[in-house]
Each structure stands twice: as C-alpha cells, then as structure tokens.
Design brief:
The protein is α/β, with parallel strands linked by helices. The protein contains 13 helices and 18 strands. It has two domains: 243 residues, TIM Barrel (Alpha-Beta Barrel); 134 residues, Lyase, Ornithine Decarboxylase, Chain A, domain 1. It starts with 8 loop residues before the first helix and ends with a helix. The relative contact order is 0.16. It binds pyridoxal-5'-phosphate.
C-alpha cells in the first residue's frame, strides 16, 4: 500500500484539525496485520519473532506488537530499559545485540541477565574472562550483505558488524577455554533486502555453521524484510519465500533432527506502512522553472530521503484532484539538502495544503532530532475502532527550551543571584 494512506484522507484531515502538523499517524490495524502475516508465514516452523524497536520505539506501538506475540531485538541499554519500564518486559524476552559495546555496558547487561549477542572477538575474550560458564550468542558476518542502501548493508567485507566466518574457529576456542555455552548464532545482513534470494543465500551460510556449535538452541537470521516504497515495487512474493526460505529451514530440521528454533527480527516490515507523516505547505516558491513547496517539517523528522536518497510516496490530501504539476517538496531546515522529493508530479499544491508522506512508520520518528531547535512532531494512533489517540503530544516550545537550559546546566543572567544563594 504505498500509493494510498492506510487511513481515509478525510479522517487524516480531521486529525490535523485537532493536533496540527507535523504529525505522525500510525494505523493499528496495519501493524497487527503485518504481525499476523509473519506469524502465519513462519507458523509451520519452530520460530520466534523479535521486533527490532530501533524502527519505531513508541511504547504504544510496542504494546500492540507485544500483544501480537513478539519478543524484542534490543541494541542498547536504553531500549532495554524502555521495554522494562513500558511493558514490564524482562531479559527472557530480549535478545541484546549491541554494537561496539563498552566494558561498563557489558557488566550492566550481564547483571541484568540479558543474553548478549557478541559480534567482536575482543569483546568475546573480555566476556569469557569476566563470565566463564555463561551462555552467549555470536553475531556472525556471513560475508554476504544486502540492503536498500550502502549504509544499511550490515554484513560483507566492508561491514563493521559481526564476527567474520574466518574468525569463528578462534571464537570457538575462546568459548571452549572459558566453558561458555554458545546457544545462538545470529546474523543480520541488512535492511530492505530487495529479494528473498539474497536473504536465503546468507541463511544457508548460518545453517551450514550449526554443526560446529554443539550447545546451539537457535539460529537468528535477523531482519531486513522490505516494503514497497515506490508504486511500481512489490512485496516479496509469498511463494518465493516459501520455496527459498521456509523449505530450506524445514529441510534443515529434517536432516539434523536437532531442536533448533529459528529467530527473525523484523523492524521495518512491521511498522513502515502503518505510519505516515502529515506536513503542511508553508510556502510555494518559484525558482527559475522549478516550483518549491516548502513545508513545516524536514529531515529532522524524516531523514530517510536525505540519508539514503529514499523514495516516499507523497499525497496532496487537501487537493487530491488538482492538475498534476512537478514540485520539489522541501523542509524548513537551514540545509540545502533538506528535501523530501525532487520534481515530483503532484496535484496542484497551494499554501496551507496538507501533504501525507507515506510509509514513514519505520526509521522516521525513531531517527528524528531537534536540529535547528525545532520541536519533534506529535504522534497519534488510529485504533482498530476507528478512533484517534494521541500517543506523543507536541512538545510545548517553552518547555522544550527550558529542558535545554536544564540539561546544559545553563543559568540565564537573571537567575544567577538565585542560584548563588
Ligand atoms: C540487529 C538488527 N536486527 C534487526 C534489524 C531490523 O531490520 P529491518 O528493519 O530491516 O527489519 C536491524 C536493523 O538495522 C538490526 O540491526
């Protein structure tokens, strides 16, 4: 669904009336449907689904995903703490896969009872020295990576992630010496993997390694399931998934007769299509032959177009049947690259129109910043009962600036006397 919002336009405009723009809106039904479709897909196998909350960590969405039976892939102690405080989720429901972990973080993770997924030999050595006899998982670099952009390819020879295959004998040696139990092997080759064949090829690598690990309880193939962002793109073909991904897993279980569970860590697939960013056109400007439509948002709210050159379909909600014209849709930041779409054919845009930037539920709000001291957007959930619920209010500007003053321990001149006393 990348050309139409999952929520009726009339309702989205109502939400704008109530909460203004910029506004993230998420459709609960889409999230639940994506969760259920994954459960149905993997249901014939021993499987576990871990939602990668880096895609979107709003606790209201986490609760929905938890209700749908997901555990979690967490990459920082912040994510772990949010899960604990928001949902009461403990270490048994989390696989902790941090990158370039510090000693202090390792100690904290171990004290919390988190299962640590280690992707560096040096870290494995330090873990072995500190926690002999413990269970641990290894993140492997299967030498094959894939993704929608160079920056999200997380395996292969140019990647900082995972233990290269050639270093695995050394990892086994370290583990054996400290009597560590390697209970899981993990890989995540990238995000937005264009086809099941690339995923399956890397999967074969991990399956081929299983026999070298006698304590193995699970294999984790990571996330990376794509969504169609452009109108001409299609989701992965279900039949191809069955043939290339499910069939080899079934064959593996049949041949090896080991009670191995298969883990998957989807992020984008679960939330991307459920979310959209509503922005208002503040300026219409002609420069040479080009029309610029400036909006009240920018890459501080949705960085994907700027960071990855990503396409997001845009709909003019206020004037859907206007004559088509090419527009460059920009944000309001002081950066020339602050552009959502270049020379995009859209129904005539007028100042004040509301545009919907689609498929923005993943890596949108979770990567947002307050650059230029512009506040974060508000977020609302469109429930399965067809009602809107505010799930993150728009920050009040005075409180936002007050927070900066407090965080920087800065004392404005008028307040000095008060502080000194
Ligand atoms: C370790 C790990 N697992 C899962 C994911 C989720 O990936 P995606 O959102 O493409 O499914 C990521 C994303 O970068 C990741 O780093």
């Amino acid at each position: 669904m990348s050309t139409h919002p999952p929520i009726p336009s009339r309702r989205l405009l109502e939400a704008v009336e109530t909460w203004g723009t910029p506004l993230y809106v998420y459709d609960e039904a889409t999230i639940r449907e994506r969760c259920q479709s994954l459960r149905e897909l993997f249901g014939t196998l021993p499987y576990r689904l871990l939602y990668a909350l880096k895609a979107n960590y709003n606790p209201h969405l986490l609760r929905i995903i938890r209700e749908e039976g997901f555990d979690f892939d967490a990459v920082s102690l912040g994510e772990v703490e949010l899960l604990r405080r928001a949902l009461g989720v403990g270490p048994e429901a989390i696989l902790f896969t941090p990158n370039m972990l510090s000693d202090a973080e390792m100690r904290e993770a171990a004290e919390q009872g988190l299962l640590l997924n280690i992707g560096e030999l040096g870290r494995l050595e330090r873990f072995a020295a500190a926690y002999p006899g413990h269970a641990v998982a290894l993140r492997v670099n299967p030498d094959l990576g894939s993704g929608h952009h160079e920056y999200v390819i997380t395996a292969g020879e140019r990647s900082k992630f995972g233990i290269p295959r050639s270093d695995l004998p050394r990892a086994i040696e370290i583990a054996q010496r400290a009597e560590l139990r390697i209970v899981g092997l993990h890989q995540h080759i990238g995000s937005g993997i264009p086809n099941p064949a690339a995923f399956a090829e890397a999967m074969e690598v991990l399956l081929g390694l299983a026999d070298s690990f006698p304590d193995l309880e699970w294999l984790d193939f990571g996330g990376g399931f794509p969504i169609p962002y452009r109108p001409e793109e299609r989701p992965w073909d279900r039949e191809e998934i069955r043939a290339r991904i499910l069939a080899p897993l079934e064959a593996f279980l049949h041949q090896h007769r080991r009670p191995i569970c298969f883990y998957f860590e989807p992020g984008r697939y679960v939330v991307a299509e459920a979310g959209l960013l509503l922005v208002r056109v503040t300026e219409l400007k002609r420069v040479g032959s080009r029309w610029y439509a400036g909006t009240d948002s920018g890459f501080h709210h949705l960085i994907r177009p700027v960071l990855y050159g990503s396409y997001h379909h845009i709909v003019n909600l206020s004037n859907p049947h206007g004559p088509l014209r090419p527009y460059t849709i920009t944000g309001n930041l002081c950066e020339s690259g602050d552009i959502f779409a270049r020379d995009r054919e859209l129904p005539e845009i007028r100042p004040g129109d509301v545009l919907a930037i689609l498929d923005a539920g993943a890596y949108g709000m979770s990567m947002a910043s307050t650059y230029n001291l512009r506040e974060l957007p508000a977020e609302v959930l469109y429930t399965t009962e067809g009602r809107f619920r505010l799930i993150r209010p728009r920050p009040d500007r005075a409180a936002f600036i007050e927070q900066i003053l407090r965080q920087t321990a800065f004392v404005p001149p008028g307040d000095v006397a008060q502080l000194d006393t």
